Amino acid sequence: MKNRILTGITTSGTPHLGNYFGAIKPSLELAKKSSDSFFFLADYHSIIKVNNPQEVTSSIENIALAWLSSGLDTKNSYFYKQSDIREILELSWVLHCVTAKGLMNRAHAYKALKENNSDDKGVNMGLFSYPILMSADILMFNSTHVPVGPDQLQHLEMTRDIALRFNHIFGDTFEIPEAVINNDDPIPGIDGRKMSKSYNNVIPLLCDEKTLKKSIMKIVTNSLEPGVPKDHTNCNVFSLYINFASDKEIEEFKDDYANGISWGDAKNKLFDKANETLLPIREKYFDLREQKDLVNDHLSDGAKKVRPLAREFIEVIRSKIGIS
């Protein structure tokens, strides 16, 4: 079996630094060491929370451009929309039928909502069972390795449980995927919580210089005055800075904190490093954005490469469960 990695990003909202450092950058680096690489846009996942069709459509294009601008090589990888591979939804139903409700009861997203809504108000079945659709995304192509952050590890563990259950009932069918854990701390948003479209606290990845600086200047800090030593260990500005800077620059920034750097100067330093790193991505994005039908062409080509794999494997699964 080839070494296959798979990464997806939900198509809701604007691509942000959390997407880049948490998924895009590490996945592209891992792809260089893998036999096969699958990158997909999880558009069916997005409708769990997004009811605006225009927002979903716009986000599909922007997330695709984020991958392409960051260096994704579509000639040597599989790049596609989840919705273009209908077999994924068929597999999702099959997996629903071997998955215990108790397993879904333990999903973090469901538990978090249920804590505030004891009667399940506001919990739709998409949110409740989305880990099964995620499992179908992974198992459809017998992915062997899935890059995840520590907060996403549960999803991969559920996929493993579901695959093992299916294999136990119907015989060896699925590879049991392994997590490739990104041990870095989650990328903080401007309010200090994990950067997330759900929290509306993001710093955009694909924006002009002015918007980038404006977003960085909104980062929440404490009220310590210039000249007063500051603690870098629990600071949103510093936590973001280390993603862009060299070891030497990080040590120098620590000294700045000890010497009482003002928050304005600290944010300007972060902006300078972020702008330097993101400039080539931004320039490529603005160039690609002007090329009409570019995204659709890439995704169409990707679907043509992926569909035969999905069709072949779903026939194997149908045979296993007695449906032909």
Report on this model:
- The chain has 324 residues and is mainly alpha-helical.
- It folds into two domains: 4-187 and 292-321, HUPs (Rossmann fold), CATH 3.40.50; 207-287, Tyrosyl-Transfer RNA Synthetase (Orthogonal Bundle).
- It has helices at 17-31, 43-46, 53-69, 87-96, 101-105, 108-116, 125-139, 153-170, 209-217, 236-241, 247-258, 263-289, 294-321, and strands spanning 4-10, 36-42, 78-81, 145-148, 178-181.
- The strands form two sheets. It has a three-stranded parallel beta sheet with strand order 1-2-3. It has a two-stranded parallel sheet with strand order 4-5.
- Helix 8 (153-170) links the parallel strand 4 (145-148) and strand 5.
- Helix 4 (87-96) packs across helix 7 (125-139).
- The two termini are 26 Å apart.
- The best one-word shape is globular
Helical coverage, percent range = 40-55%
CATH C-level class of the largest domain is Alpha Beta
Radius of gyration: 21 Å
The strand order across the widest sheet is 1-2-3
Instruction: Write the H/E string, N to C.
Output: EHEHHEHHHHEHEHHHHH
Structural class: mainly alpha
Largest sheet: 3 strands, parallel
**Proportion of strand residues:** 5-15%
Low-pLDDT segments: none
Q: Can you tell me the CATH superfamily of the largest domain? A: HUPs
Gap between N and C termini: 26 Å
Architecture of the largest domain in CATH?
A: 3-Layer(aba) Sandwich
SSE inventory with pairings:
Layout: E1 4-10, H1 17-31, E2 36-42, H2 43-46, H3 53-69, E3 78-81, H4 87-96, H5 101-105, H6 108-116, H7 125-139, E4 145-148, H8 153-170, E5 178-181, H9 209-217, H10 236-241, H11 247-258, H12 263-289, H13 294-321
Parallel strand pairs: 1-2, 2-3, 4-5
Helix pairs in contact: 3-12, 4-7, 4-13, 7-8, 9-12
